Please model this.
Amino acid sequence: MNRFARFGIFVLVVVAVAAFSAYRFLNRHDGQTTLYRTAPVKRGDLLATIGATGTVEPEELVDVGAQVAGQILVFGKDRSGKTVDYGSVVQEGMVLARIDDSLFAADVATAKAQLEQAKAGVARSQADLGQLQAKLVQAERDWSRAKKLGPSEALSQADFDAAQSAYEVAKANMEVGKASIVQSKSSVAQAEATLMRAQRNLDYCTIKSPVDGVIIDRRVNIGQTVVASLNAPSLFLIAKDLKRMQVWVSVNEADIGTIHPGQPVAFTVDAFPGEVFRGEVGKIRLNATMTQNVVTYTVEVVTDNSDGRLLPYLTANARFMVNERDDVLMTPNAALRWSPTADQLAPDSRKKSGSGSAARNPSDSGSTGEAGRESSPRGVVYVPAGNFVRPLTVATGLSDGSMTEIQGEAIKEGMLVVLGEETRDASGPQTVASPFTPQFFGRGGSGGQRPR
Model:
């Protein structure tokens, strides 16, 4: 084969390969068409919130305990005349329960007897003092006569000394009598204190409500023995006022800086689906808790419960109102997260990008969650341009977790921005491509993804 024949064969092979490549290329684009999922830029109000969970709690709880030990004999009656139980409405001073008081009643009787005995001792001491007073007067008279006579023929020295001694003894006995009265009165005071203590213990056998309220929990039964030692056993738990409730919300340390007293809060409970309750931050407790290296603070949210619908200990899903924007342009967060491939960019946009690859969106690494913080100051959205997309740089603002505020000279209300792509095969159903869908190379079969 001569040189010209070999050259001809080479040319034919090159032409055949080029024709085959062109056929594959045209067949690829004819069999698979990329459609973009879009959404319009909207104008409206944007509200940023912090989400957290908590528990509905009564605003003020009183734990009623027992200060003496004994067996529960009987429960009292509530305002409606029924036996005290869960949910009973009680008033201050109303009897809740009675403890067996037989031992304490015996102590009171003993203390009363001791008090009477001490009082009798005082009376006896006073009577003895009267006798001693009379003896002192007699001894003083005898001593006065003895001093006048002196030791002489009329009064011997022995009688003189005896009169003097009798007088001194009588004075000393007077002091003893007075001390005996003081001692007897002290015994009376001690007996009175013992009686008061015994009477108080007897009174403690009757458990009374310290406040007006509703019984949330009854923790004892009739016949049960309560033992009061270092800690008073709890018998009843009373909510003072169920018309004002609190929601104790655990807030992460990363979000606590945006919480302040008076801040409006909306919350829901599973007991009333679809209904939103309102409240405001009362205070932030400073005793933080740490669970698995996560620090949280308890925030008290005060809410009105005049209708009594909120029950204690319901689980609440709370949202703290952090910030809001009125009448702003906003786009779905997916528009800020999506990035095209190089061949999806409009030709003029490829030249501006320099590297020929799709520009990375700053919001990919930033958070646009519910914390209400502003995302990256700059972002990129893509608008359809025929079969291609064109990037628009925007300033991003507040986000509520699904929508983000955007600003830019080219941004108009109603403008379509790309959220993702839909790849349609001529022989198969549509498949949806998103930034989070795995991408595969090659055409594949029905439903395969376009190479990225």
